[in-house]
Design brief:
It is built from 7 helices and 32 strands. By secondary structure, the chain is mainly beta. The chain folds into 2 domains: about 350 residues, Cupredoxins -  blue copper proteins (Immunoglobulin-like), CATH 2.60.40; about 200 residues, Cupredoxins -  blue copper proteins (Immunoglobulin-like, Sandwich), CATH 2.60.40.420. The structure holds copper (II) ion (CU). The site of copper (II) ion has 5 residues, from loops. It is found in: Secreted.
Length: about 575
């Protein structure tokens, strides 16, 4: 008789434990800089209500979330993006500065109000300048009243990377001529906690006991032990909001069954560790069937770039165990440049049964070439030779009020000239252009986007770029090596069971294909989720159903800057 995997039994049972009525979750959040010790060294974080990371939003699908954001920063604006929430009917609440709203001025309050229409593991983060990198983030969990997974407990693991250099200094460095690279992060954080000048597992290394971390109770950098009971099933909700690092997470002695990616169930598959890129979320199920008298490391390490940052560690501890640390060294993170291993993980992800298939044909196709360039000797990232310069007036407002001088009306090229560009070499002409043009799509069409990677400015290097689309889930149709061949590579697309996601990785020297339906009137950012890359122009903007935007209710408070501010001040007057 065939043995049925334990998680499969769990996934077929459906339980309902939430009443049909939807609730309103309302909160006031004061955002301010605060001294903090994220990695046992004093730094400055962006805290919400004095907390770092920010509070977890825990809602049910269908609930209305109302967050009054009070900007208590003395000298800069702020916005918050609800990553993974589609904002159907509320594009003004998407929280992307310059795209959907103006930054909230110091001392002012802005109210986000939106419906979390679909269950999933999400997070929120700052989307102005490099504020995400300063620690403006937290988890956003949307539960299903009809959860199809059964588990006994759950943990949220919000992963991030941390620099000792302030974001203001980082922004200046990246915008300088010549550009000064910010380098690799000093620490990796799990739920805002890491260890810079010590190691929890030092007694396994050369340093020995003298480098072992000593924590006092309530230390802000002290890891949070995952306390579990034997023979139970736990859901780990994992999100990566790193500024730069691609990560790999493992739980020693335990396998992980991947069940959710970016808020969509996937066909369950079992792995020893997961790769997670900035902007992605996963849920994995973990069965506590290891020896309960032992303790086990949860380790997070860097992949995709040569790691100069130590692993982040915390401990999985069965309740009957003592407080000591595991008696064996932490798992070794798979070697950073084994890209084939990373690809094989990505290619294991398929939609769970019951998910809609993508439409069979697309109406429009973009081929977006990702290059690193120079603009007047400033280092930039460009898409089809345009480095995005986000305008002062938010697109959503300039489109609503027909303010045609607010941005470049000419759209960037839909395709790069495939034949003439060698993606394996540095650009023959390193110079690029800057622009604020956007792509316009009518409502109800199917759009394919091919992301095409290339060599950087110097040397033989092509970087990883996790691309995130606001306002949508998209189907990941496939990944390929080298240059995309239009008319040929489309035949390899997976139209049977591609996963729905909101973030997808573009591997070095390769291409990634995705498909989405323009079903959400608004203006939506589509960009590399690596904070320095976005800062250097690596993004595009999609406007959808612009004729609907004119009739849309957008709070004036979202548009109190640039040309929309002028328009609103003169409203009703000639
Ligand atoms: Cu990038």
């Amino acid at each position: 008789m065939a043995v049925i995997a334990w998680w499969w039994l769990l996934t077929v049972v459906v339980v309902a434990f939430h009443s049909a009525s939807s609730a309103v979750i309302e909160s006031t959040w004061e955002v301010e800089y605060k001294y903090w010790w994220p990695d046992c060294k004093e730094g400055i974080v962006m805290a919400i209500n004095g907390q770092f990371p920010g509070p977890t939003i825990d809602a049910f699908a269908g609930d209305t979330v109302i967050i009054h954001v009070v900007n208590k920063l003395s000298t800069e604006g702020v916005v918050i993006h609800w990553h993974g929430i589609r904002q159907k009917g509320t594009p003004w609440a998407d929280g992307a500065a310059g795209v959907t709203q103006c930054p909230i001025n110091p001392g002012e309050t802005f109210t986000y109000k939106f419906i979390v229409d679909k269950a999933g593991t999400h997070f929120y983060h700052g989307h102005y300048g490099m504020q995400r990198s300063a620690g403006l983030y937290g988890m956003l969990i949307v539960r299903s009243p009809k959860e199809r997974l059964i588990y006994d407990g759950e943990f949220n693991l919000l992963l991030s990377d941390w620099w000792h250099q302030s974001i203001h200094s980082q922004e200046l460095a990246l915008s300088s001529r010549p550009m000064r690279w910010i380098g690799e992060p000093q620490s990796l954080l799990i739920n805002g906690r890491g260890q810079f000048n010590c190691s929890q597992a030092a007694y396994f290394n050369k340093g020995g006991e003298k480098d072992v971390c000593t924590f006092r109770e309530n230390d802000q950098c002290a890891p949070q032990t995952l306390r579990v009971e034997p023979n139970r099933v736990y859901r780990l909700r994992i999100a990566s909001t790193t500024a730069l690092a691609s990560l790999n997470l493992a739980v020693q002695g335990h396998q992980l069954v991947v069940v959710e990616a970016d808020g969509n169930y996937v066909a369950p598959f079992t792995v020893n560790d997961i790769d997670i890129y900035s902007g992605e979320t996963y849920s994995v199920l973990l069965k506590t069937n290891a020896l309960p008298s032992n303790k086990y490391w949860v380790s997070v390490g860097v992949r995709g770039r040569e790691p100069k940052t130590p692993q982040a560690l915390t401990v999985l501890n069965y309740v009957d165990a003592t407080e000591s640390r595991p008696s064996h060294p932490p798992p070794v993170t798979p070697i950073w440049n084994d890209t084939d291993r990373s690809k094989s993980f990505s290619k294991k992800i398929f939609a769970a049964k019951g998910y809609p298939k993508p439409p069979e044909k697309s109406h429009d196709q973009l081929i977006l070439l990702n290059t690193q360039n120079l603009y007047e000797d400033y280092t930039k990232w460009s898409i089809n030779n345009v480095s995005l310069s986000v305008p002062v007036t938010p697109y959503l407002g300039s489109i609503k009020y027909g303010l045609k001088s607010a941005y470049d009306l000419k759209s960037p090229a839909k395709k790069f000239t495939v034949d003439n560009y060698d993606i394996m070499k540095p650009p023959p002409n390193p110079n690029t252009t800057k622009g604020s043009g956007i792509y316009n799509f009518p409502l109800g069409i199917v759009v394919d986007v091919i992301l095409q990677n290339a060599n950087v400015l110097k040397g033989v290097i092509s970087e990883i770029h996790p691309w995130h689309l606001h306002g949508h889930d998209f189907w990941v149709l496939g990944y390929g090596e080298g240059k995309f061949k239009p008319g040929i590579d489309e035949k390899t697309f997976n139209l049977k069971n591609p996963p729905l996601r909101n973030t997808v990785v573009l591997y070095p020297y390769g291409w990634t294909a995705l498909r989405f339906v323009t079903d959400n009137p608004g203006v939506w950012f589509f960009h590399c989720h690596i904070e320095p890359h976005l800062h250097m122009g690596m993004g595009v903007v999609f406007a959808e159903g612009v004729d609907r935007i004119g009739k849309m209710e957008i709070p004036d408070e979202a548009l109190g800057c640039g040309l929309t501010r002028k328009w609103l001040m003169n409203r009703g007057r000639p």
